[in-house]
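ARCHIVE CARD
CATEGORY: sequence design from structure
SOURCE FIELD: tokenized fold
FIELD CONTENT:
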């Protein structure tokens, strides 16, 4: 079946929609497709973290053919489409984007993104959205759900609107260039102009979050120097404590 113009596989239960999407990428003739599931038993986030897939929430994988210039742009396109979808359901919602892959509502994580590569130059975009409930266990970031911020919807309705918004972002990229996407993203970013900590795989750095460069790298001011950072987790410094 299809959702918008995307081939769509909606399954009852999977270990991970990304795993299924990777399997389907072998000899798949479709240029783009979506894998979603009602239940996910082994979802994962960035850096091997477990994504808690609670019933009623949305977990899906969006699959596209890799084009030379799109990989580093996808987190910005996806996070903006997610933000605009939430705002569609509740225009007064306080929604922000946290570099590089998180969407926040009321300063709590409501959605996360994981990019992986598969065979035949496919890119897998794993996306989780807390629709009905949020994780209650000790997690890296405090979480919330659409229901908790007053939005009543379901995973299919949200997915439909998200795909519509994502397609609009692709059109914006093609018609107006990545600079327009970056400007749009910065309008909704959290932490700009604030002191942050950036944790990467091998080190932790502090500085002032002063924006993004034209390729989407985070610009971290350290004294008189500005450093470009391409991957990591950021924490905004408040009262000398780390808060995500």
């Amino acid at each position: 079946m299809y959702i918008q113009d995307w081939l769509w596989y909606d399954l009852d239960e999977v270990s991970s929609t990304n795993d299924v999407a990777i399997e389907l990428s072998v000899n798949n003739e479709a240029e783009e497709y979506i894998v979603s599931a009602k239940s996910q038993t082994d979802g994962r986030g960035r850096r091997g973290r477990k994504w808690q897939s609670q019933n009623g929430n949305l977990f899906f994988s969006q699959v596209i053919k890799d084009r030379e210039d799109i990989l580093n742009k996808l987190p910005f396109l996806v996070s903006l489409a997610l933000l605009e979808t939430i705002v569609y359901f509740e225009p007064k919602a306080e929604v922000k984007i946290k570099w590089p892959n998180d969407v926040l509502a009321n300063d709590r994580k409501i959605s996360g993104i994981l990019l992986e590569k598969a065979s035949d130059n496919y890119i897998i975009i794993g996306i989780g959205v807390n629709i009905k409930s949020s994780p209650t266990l000790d997690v890296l970031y405090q979480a919330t759900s659409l229901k908790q911020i007053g939005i009543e919807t379901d995973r299919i309705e949200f997915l439909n609107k998200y795909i519509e918004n994502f397609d609009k972002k692709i059109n914006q990229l093609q018609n107006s260039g990545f600079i327009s996407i970056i400007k749009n993203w910065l309008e909704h970013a959290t932490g700009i102009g604030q002191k942050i900590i950036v944790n990467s795989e091998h080190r932790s750095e502090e500085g002032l979050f002063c924006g993004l460069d034209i390729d989407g790298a985070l610009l971290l001011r350290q004294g008189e120097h500005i450093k470009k950072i391409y991957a990591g987790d950021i924490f905004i410094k408040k009262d000398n404590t780390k808060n995500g």
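CARD ANNOTATION: The CA atoms of residues 133 and 148 lie 7 Å apart. Residues 155-176 form the longest helix (22 residues).
SHELF: design records, drawer C
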